[in-house]
Design a protein that fits this description.
Helices cover 23% and strands 18% of the residues. The chain is of the alpha+beta class and 168 residues long. The chain folds into 2 domains: 50 residues, no CATH class; 117 residues, no CATH class. The strands form 2 sheets. A 4-stranded mixed β-sheet has the order 3-6-5-4, with helices on one face. The protein has a two-stranded antiparallel sheet with strand order 1-2. It is globular and about 50 Å long. The mean pLDDT is 86.
Length: 168
């Protein structure tokens, strides 16, 4: 895919966002279903665009699809309890409470794929309402992607601080 965007024969359509995986056969659906404990795979149609680094991966959900939560705040709280919130040293974290109009994701009406460019961390953003919502992972696909994950895993295996050598 990168070769298409960088090649000399790049067409005009590649200068705009492109939705792929529309047949719902994306290679990561089985692992998403397994890790999340879902009875059915989620609807997942990634969008690729022409910018050097950064990625936004969004999964839309209905609150009725989940158990143990009944509000948008509770969805965010589960993620915050598991991953923590931003403290400057977290590799993965839940961004601000979506029900907080001052500092949460409710304060922003747009998320940008390149917002985490140059960082080795991943921010989880919950947005929507108590009936339907999205969970978006914002990260630098060249940082938190395979290379950042490799450094993080190496640190854990060698007993170093998890974030050693990473730019969070």
């Amino acid at each position: 895919m990168i070769a298409q965007y960088e090649g000399p024969e790049k067409g005009e359509l590649l200068c705009s966002p492109g939705i792929y995986g529309v047949t719902q056969g994306h290679k990561h659906l089985p692992e998403m279903q397994k890790i999340c404990g879902l009875a059915h795979p989620p609807v997942f149609s990634p969008i690729v665009d022409d910018y050097y680094k950064g990625m936004a991966t969004t999964v839309p959900l209905h609150i009725s699809q989940l158990t143990g939560v009944s509000t948008l705040h509770q969805v965010w709280q589960v993620l915050a309890d598991h991953y923590g919130t931003y403290n400057g040293r977290r590799v993965v974290y839940a961004a601000g409470d979506p029900t907080d109009p001052e500092g949460g994701t409710a304060a922003s009406s747009k998320f940008y794929g390149a917002a985490m460019a140059g960082r080795d961390s991943l921010a989880l953003l919950v947005a929507g309402n108590d009936e339907q919502f999205t969970v978006t992972a914002l990260f630098d696909n060249l940082g938190k992607g395979a290379s950042g994950a490799a450094v993080q895993n190496m640190n854990l295996m060698l007993g170093f601080e998890e974030t050693r050598g990473l730019d969070l």
